[in-house]
Amino acid sequence: xxxxxxxxxxxxxxxxxxxxxxxxxxxxxxxxxxxxxxxxxxxxxxxxxxxxxxxxxxxxxxxxxxxxxxxxxxxxxxxxxxxxxxxxxxxxxxxxxxxxxxxxxxxxxxxxxxxxxxxxxx
Length: 122
Description:
Layout: H1 3-16, H2 20-30, E1 36-39, E2 42-45, H3 46-60, E3 65-75, E4 78-86, E5 95-103, E6 109-118
Parallel strand pairs: 1-6
Antiparallel strand pairs: 1-2, 3-4, 4-5, 5-6
Helix pairs in contact: 1-2, 2-3
Domain SnoaL-like: 8-110
Protein name: Nuclear transport factor 2 family protein
Pfam family, one: SnoaL_2
């Protein structure tokens, strides 16, 4: 497993962490202080911004979890990966996204740029 694959695994674990304090600590450890998170529904910067987006998603999709779909494609300090929002491990995702994470020299995430491939029906 590459370092970037490990980073992506840790990133998705943050989205699945129910405890807000543990989530905040993990964000502070994994992200640079000014890291942006940008997708079609959000554009935030920094630990508090990332935490707010994740908290909002967890509130909107209670009981669901994010899982890695396929393998992480990496080169240099970039990782691209597809994720699914599922009701249980291995279930058909109700939402699918594609993210690109950029890391700093120290391995922390310095930006995440996301796209939504499948969104739940309203």
